[in-house]
Specification:
The structure is a single chain. By secondary structure, this protein is low in regular secondary structure. The chain contains two helices and three strands.
Length: 306
């Protein structure tokens, strides 16, 4: 005999069915989550769903210690350039090392101590030397094309000591980007075509103070299309330098010496020319913005001021 289900029995059945549907749905969600996690780990999902990998400055294989660098320098065959290109050399103590004209092209030397280092003739093409300590470092004849030297540390005290200023004599500094305190640095005979000193030296979204190049030596340097916006160039020497097309807008050129320099197309708009020496300079008639320069009446010209 079949017994007819009572209302209370039907209610119990419905409750059990609802419970089963809930359990099955929950299990399905768990399976989906597990599958998604596995897929993300395997790279099957967009990168924003996968866990972020730990960021490193450079591959582990290119991470050297100061001892590693010293070993490579000493083990290099006589007459051959030690190979240190495209390496992570950040924050190392490499002070006083003789780099023996090493190939450091593309290497990252952020925050590295290069005090009194001998980098003459070295290749630093595209290298990054931001916040590096370059006290008394010698870059004479080195190739720093497309390199960056942002906010370097030079002087050991608040006093400017000429002996602590770095040397870039005869170096290639094409399109170099730099700012910070570079007072009394020696750039004589260097090629700084397209160099940028000061604001705009980097595309990074950060604040840049105008470069300080007080008493810097640019004698016979090539400064075509170089940019020094708002830079402090008091007492700087540009004797016989090529400044054609250079940007000196807003620069402080108090008592700067431009004797024999090529000023064809040089932009002096807003620059301070107080006691600046432009006697014997070439291309003055083609210079830009002299009429809008400050203290033009106090500058020294071979003929009357433009």
């Amino acid at each position: 005999m079949i017994r007819e289900a009572t209302p209370s029995t039907k209610a119990g059945w419905r409750k059990e069915q609802d419970t089963m549907r809930f359990v099955n749905g929950l299990a399905a969600l768990v399976l989906i989550a597990v599958s998604a996690s596995a897929a993300a780990a395997g790279g099957d999902l967009p990168s924003y769903t996968a866990p972020k990998a730990a960021q490193t400055d450079a591959p582990a294989a290119s991470k050297l210690t100061a001892r590693d660098v010293t070993s490579r320098l000493f083990q290099a065959a006589p007459g051959s350039a030690p190979d240190l290109h495209e390496l992570n050399l950040t924050r190392l103590d490499l002070a006083e090392l003789d780099f023996k004209k090493a190939n450091l092209a593309g290497s990252d030397l952020y925050g590295t101590d290069l005090s009194r280092a001998k980098l003459m003739g070295a290749s630093l093409v595209g290298a990054r030397l931001d916040r590096a300590t370059i006290t008394s470092a010698d870059f004479s004849g080195a190739d720093l094309t497309d390199a960056r030297i942002l906010r370097p540390t030079i002087f050991t005290t608040l006093e400017v000591d000429t002996s602590e200023a770095p040397k870039f004599t005869g170096a290639k500094l094409l399109r170099i980007r730099s700012d910070g305190w570079l007072d009394r640095a020696d750039f004589s005979g260097a090629d700084l075509t397209g160099a940028v000193f000061g604001g705009g030296a980097s595309r990074e979204e950060t604040l840049f103070s105008p470069a300080s190049l007080v008493s810097a030596n640019f004698t016979k340097a090539i400064l075509k299309e170089a940019k020094f916006p708002g830079a402090s160039l008091k007492y700087a020497r540009f004797i016989d330098a090529d400044l054609s097309g250079a940007n000196l807008i807003g620069a402080n050129l108090t008592q700067a010496n431009f004797s024999g320099a090529d000023l064809t197309g040089t932009d002096f708009t807003g620059a301070n020319l107080d006691e600046a020496d432009l006697r014997g300079a070439r291309g003055i008639d083609q210079a830009i913005g002299l009429a809008r320069a400050e203290n033009i009446g106090r500058a020294h010209f071979t003929t009357a001021a433009p």
